[in-house]
Amino acid sequence: MAQDITNGVDTDRSPPVQNLRSKFEQLALDQSPTSRPRQSNGSQKDFLTSNTSPGPRPRATSSSSSNGTPFDVSHLRSSSSSSDLKVATKRPPPPPPSRPSKMLPNSQIPAPAELSAALLRPVPIPSKAHTSPRPQSPRIPSPSSLTSHEGPQQSSLRHELALAPPTSPRQPPPPYPPDTSTRPPVPPRHAKSDISFLKPHPQNSDNILDTNFRTVSPFSDDDIGENTPAAPPTHPSRRKPLSNHPPSSESSMASSESDISVSSRSSRPSSRFRTDASFASSPSTSPNPPPLPSRRPVPVISSSSEESSNISPRPPARPNVAISTHINTSDFPSPSSSSATEKMERKALGSGKLPPPPTRTIGPGDKLPAPRRPPTPDYSDEESGEEEIVVNPLPDCSRTSRRPPVMSFHYANVEPAIHIGQQSTVSVAGTTAVVAGTSSVKIYDLSQSDIPRLSLDMRSLVGKDYRILSMEFRPSAQKADRGFVVWLGTKEGHLHELDVRMGTMVATKYSAHPHAITHIFRYGRAMVTIDDSGKGLVWAPDASGGQDITLTQTTPRVVRISEHVSFMKIIAGRLWTAVRSETQHLPGTPQANRVPVLRVYDIFKPGNPSRAVVPSELVGAVMCATLISGSPGIVYVGHEAGSVSMWSLNTEDGYPQCIEVMKISNSDVLCVEGVNDRLWVGGRGGFISVYDVSARPWVVTNSWVAHPLLPVSKIAVDHYGIDKIGRLCVVSVGRDDQLRLWDGLLGLDWVDEELLKYEHTFAKTRHLKVLVVSWNVGAARPESLATGDPVNVNFLCDALRSIKSPDIISFGFQEVIDLESRKLAARNLLASSSRNEDGLSDRVSSAYRRWNDHLIMALRQAIPDVSYSVIHTHSLVGLFSCILIKDSEMERGTIKEPHITHIKRGMGGRYGNKGAIISRFILDDTSICLLNCHLAAGQNAVRQRNGDVTAILERDALFPVTHFPFAYVGGGDGTMILDHEIVIANGDMNYRIDHRRDAIISSIRTNDYTSLLTHDQLLREIKYNRACRFRGFSEGALTFPPTYKYDPNTNDYDTSEKRRSPAWCDRVLWRSKVPTRVRQVHYRRYEIDVSDHRPVSAAFEVTVKKLEREERGRVKMAVQASWAEEQNRLLSEAKRFYVRQALI
Fold it and tell me: What are φ and ψ of residue 252, in 5° steps?
């Protein structure tokens, strides 16, 4: 045998290659007539004790064998994995390289033992089912008919080749399917020059594999990349191949050291982490494998080099897909079933179940028909309707009064100013206010002075300085004593009882708590004290209830709660607590979404367990909670990030359940309090907002600055004040260390609303005509209007004559200068702001001055018989405003307090390329404000535009405080825009249309503007976004085409590379306290083409009033008398509610 092995190695230079058949294939052909049948009954022991010495298999060459005696390797197999060759931890040696172009000389041929040691070793003879001879010899398949193989056993490629007897390739192929009991023939080994890829099909149905997936060895340590060589063949094909893709030219049988598996890199571990036990239960050892499914035949590729050179390159590999090696054979139909064959056929592209898209034939100028199929809710915003828009849950703040409801006990209505100091606690009962600081107690009489009536030192009272952390008035059976005896809790755990009438210490209980007393509550006739460690004492009167509780005679009952709580309050007879660090995962959401946990203790019923409850939606930490008399069965809990959760008390077990979460602010909700039927909320910006929770959505009725720019830390109701002073007082404390008092019933607003109903009895009205012209000039000069199209020449005359003899004319232009010119922008930015005698500021360049002169000249030509006076002219980096009023109005002296200013919004408020010019004046007793604005640009910049609107409308201190308060509304003093009774806003607001460009243009061509309104960003924001500050404004019907964006000097919409969608960017809106006092006469656009925008104009008929002061005074006195009756009714309702809640 050794001699055969030696003779099987070519020692001479091989002749030129005549064909593509390899040496291995030639050996198989020579052996076919005299091939010996394999030993089917040989045992593993006989094989292992055989005297046949193993040796290396013959190398394949392009020529025939030197001696013609083939070497029988049927009893040998190559290593099936790298684990078979493993020596200690060293990696197995690589397989022998492909045959070089020149043979090695005889002196360099390695010894037979060296060749066989690395690649060959004896293995057990397979079972009879795999070694029985075939009844007939199938033909040798061509290399292109071979496909890859992957099975649970991961049997070796060379082992499979060694077990197959050589047969003649010229015999006819067996009928399909072949007999599974026969062994496959020995496949030919191709030479290095052969680039055809051998892809045999799997033998067992358990190893069925779609050739569309990548074949990757699970035993290979190499990374899978885009350039991974194609897998070598393992089994000859018994069917026609599925694919005709050529392999890599580097693929060869000798380059494989493992079988081929098809799985993703992550779904199957490497072989070095697997053991041989995994092969024991492999289903491939079954003697009767299931039949293979039929596959679609493809043309067989010839193995010749000429044909293989013309083969198209391999398509890119599909993504790795994890395929289980244990495939259920019942899922695969029989090969003889035609229906099964059809199911396995690969569908052609576009053969899905969806019908083809509908086709429409539309003539030029015809209106688009209705859609044949309703849109699905998964469409984008461009194709969605109104029902798909998510409603913003923020409350409606379009009609908010910003007047502070100041409460005073003086006839001069002067608000008391009390400084409480840092880390102080406050309690108010009627006109008595007690402020406890670090070691002192100050007692105020609010009806007398802001100076403390008594200032007590703790050292003088109890002999030592104790820091007071909590305070509450003790209940009393005697009405005369209510609101005069207060309990003080100290950091050292002591309790003190102080009578504020005389300033004397009534009783003291030292070490009542082992830790600092952080909370003291009053509930009915009982008191509750709780320290920082979670220990609580319930001080309740005896069963008879005749005597008041005292520190010295009443024995408290101990309760335990969570320690270090961040929120604590008694609501509806139960103690609600929350710890900031205690959170819980919200079911049905990602693990990172955690919500705060509220614990509810029934401390007044011994033995009742506590209950932990969580909100139904994702909210921030719990900060505060309260009840409202209008909804006594619902608890309102304030959270960080501006949410309020609502909890129902009417449940089966009596414990609260979250029913709704409302987003009310973008800032934290620091404190809440139920006052009458309204919810009072304090935020971080120092604002206190009042919400009407009975409406849906909630309505912000009042919002004012209580503690400027600093958080509101506490809001509390003076329950005893209802009986003591006959008023409902609300106390607020802020980080500015100021104590503020507010009217909880909001009486001033009630009086103003009633006066408005009777205004026709003490006010005279008249009508004025107002004309507003808005245009984005696009840096065009006035001279461009003087030549060319008559529409351009007559533009200003047509606009000025659109309404007969207007009383007020407002020109609002944008982009008067080229905003992209850095030179002009710098000149506007750095120029001085001094003004000339003509009212035009020095910062106005020649461009603004030319437009100013051109407008005045056009006005004289259009309306020659009426004279006008310019009251305002202003510019701001492209923005230009010019306000004119009839001289007759000026002579009557009806114009008062004219002011003009601007707001910059570009570059975060530092640059004026975006912003607004604001002009205001009072005509008779009606305040009018005119805005010319240019908002942020961009199709998707809706939030930026909304932010610009909010910053402009909510900017305070724009104007000086007015001397005519009757002319303003909402409790304003004229310093803000929304303080004015009539507000008209115009400009390039840049709100776009969220729709496809071709659909917009089609609707424009058919004059179908109604279909575009649902996609207009501004209309949608006003309708659905309750936080949009334009929500309280109105706009006329858009009956003209979009005014943006045109190619200059043409009537074509944007044809540049950007191809911007048309939009109604240029708008005119208005707002009035009384809606009937502003009526729009027309709203139109003009076809001037010198800019990329079309100008628009709007004419209004405005009703202004003139008050009769004396008559108004008499009506106001009657309204205030009515308020006194209404106040008593509201106080009675509030008292009944507080009594039911055991707060009085």
Answer: -155, 160
Nearest alpha-carbon partner for 655 in 597, 613, 624? 613
What is the end-to-end Cα distance of the chain in Å, rounded? 113
Structural tokens at position 77: 């197999």
Contact call for residues 774 and 1084 (beta carbons, < 8 A): no
CB count within 10 Å of CB 693 equals 22
Q: What is the DSSP string of 483-527?
A: TTEEEEEETTS-EEEEETTTTEEEEEETTSSSS-EEEEEEETTEE
587 Cβ contact partners less than 8 Å away, ≥ 6 residues apart: none
Q: What are phi and psi of 648, to 5 degrees?
A: -85, 135
Please, what is the average pLDDT of the chain? 75
Residue 780 DSSP class: -
CA angle 449, 455, 457 (to 5 degrees): 170
Q: How many CB atoms lie within 10 A of CB 277?
A: 7
| Sequence-separated (6 or more) residues with CB below 8 Å from residue 136 | 171, 174, 182
How many angstroms separate the CA atoms of 559 and 561, rounded? Answer: 7
Cα distances (angstroms) measured from residue 739 to each of 196, 394, 426, 702, 890: 92, 30, 8, 20, 47
| Cβ(15)–Cβ(53) below 8 Å | no
Cβ(496)–Cβ(488) below 8 Å: yes
Nearest to 1136 by CA among 578, 592, 629: 629
Nearest residue to 30 (alpha-carbon basis) of 1, 58, 2: 58
Residue-level pLDDT at 42: 41
Residue 362: exposed, middle, or buried by beta-carbon count in 10 A (0-12, 13-18, 19+)?
exposed
Under the banding of pLDDT at 50, 70 and 90, the label for residue 397 is: confident
Would you say residue 233 has pLDDT above 60?
no
Q: Among candidates 1027, 844, 1077, 995, which has minimal Cα distance to 382? A: 995
Task: Please state the length of the chain.
Answer: 1144
Q: Reduced to 3 states, what is the DSSP secondary structure of residue 284?
A: helix
Longest Cα separation, the chain: 136
Please say whether the beta carbons of 795 and 780 come within 8 A: no
User: CB of 684 within 8 A of CB of 671?
Assistant: no
Phi-psi region of 567 (alpha: psi -120 to 50; beta: other; left: phi over 0): beta
Give the CA distances from residue 631 to residues 507, 568, 649, 869, 1017, in Å, rounded to whole numbers and listed in that order: 40, 21, 11, 57, 37
Q: What strands lie across the sheet with 495-499, from one edge to the other?
A: 468-473, 485-490, 495-499, 504-509
Element housing 128 (H / E): helix 128-131
Give the pTM: 0.66
Given a contact cutoff of 8 angstroms between Cβ atoms, the answer to whether 980 and 966 are in contact is no
- 283 DSSP β-pair partners: none
pLDDT tens per residue across span 690-747: 999 998 889 999 999 999 989 999 999 999 999 999 999 999 999 999 999 999 999 9
CA distance 901 to 976: 12
Residue 357's pLDDT is what?
65
Cα–Cα distance, 172 to 137 (Å, whole number): 9
Instruction: State the Cα–Cα distance between residues 151 and 826, nearest whole angstrom.
Output: 76
Cα–chain center distance at 666: 15
For 268-304, write each residue's pLDDT tens digit.
444 443 444 333 333 444 445 555 555 554 444 444 4
Tell me how far apart the alpha carbons of residues 351 and 736 are, in angstroms, rounded to a whole number. 72
Angle at the Cα of 942 from the Cα atoms of 936 and 947, rounded to 5 degrees: 65
Q: How far apart are CA 829 and CA 842, in angstroms?
A: 12
Nearest CA to 153 among 293, 45, 277?
277
Token reading at 977 = 């825009």
Q: Which residues contact 778 (CB under 8 A, 6 or more apart)?
A: 815, 1048, 1090, 1091, 1092, 1093
